[in-house]
Amino acid sequence: ILFLCQNMRPLFLLFLLSSLTGCDRRPVEVGEPPVPKSDTSEADDPLSRGLQDYEGSLSRLKSYCDLWAAEYVPITDDELKQKESWFSDVYEIFEDFWMPTEPHRLAGDDEDAEIGDPYFGSPFLVLQPSVSVSFIDTWEDSDDHSEKTIEFALKLNRITGEDIDDLKSEFIEDFRPRVSSKGRKIVRLTEMRRQSLLSFLGDEHYPIGTGNIMNPATAKGESKTRANYISHYLPVIHGHFEGWHLETHPNVIRILLNTARTEAHVDFQFIYKGGTAYYRKENGKWTLKNSEFTWVQ
Fold this sequence. Notes:
The protein is α+β, with helices and mostly antiparallel strands. It contains 8 helices and 13 strands. Helices cover 27% and strands 23% of the residues. A 7-stranded mixed β-sheet has the order 1-13-12-11-10-3-4. β12 (273-282) and β13 (285-296) form a beta hairpin. α2 runs antiparallel to α3 (58-70) and α2 packs parallel to α7. The radius of gyration is 19 Å and the shape is globular.
């Protein structure tokens, strides 16, 4: 059952996109951006083999996670200078926005929003490996953030991901932002690691609505046991309908920029709900002006 926030029904398209791409299932769902092919098979991944060996040993699991974290190399200033100029805007916005340890920022001015902190105490944070970016020439100069978001939703077919009305889109595949982790270690969820985790976790679950019409789907059996084990160090959360949220949220669905690169919208998901954050470039720096939840699952 889908509950749309009041007065935000036009964002139903955005919710549908997130429902399709917000959590991992097997097989990989239709409509996702193409994933890079790895030179190393899942069978060669130490995680795929190691999880079986480490099961029951938290110290050995932590050792593996430490090695995984050591692999992550954020993009450098020199590398950014070699990219198209809009890359630096995308990186700056993401690096300011992605703060899993401060989920209250996502609610903006809504002081009554109930958010929770699902990643409290987690020693590792799992970074999404890619990000989608779209551009639009202009939008109406309005302080009504919802109105702007609706306009974007109408200009982008969020079901197929195809652009309409000449909306330019890009996909940064090798995304390596310099994020603030407040002492947490960062691991980047490559496709090989994603498949290894999905293979280990399995897909045993109680369907949505079990016991109560409002209950989300939940893991059961061996999948629940394995998820509890991994979650000591890698924060995985079961999807509302099925599958797993492997990346640490907020998951950035898409960053929308005007071509002047003075304003931006960040479409995001945070566990079972999502919304849009609004950025403006002021004195050469991207500043978060507001953020609001616009849909819930």
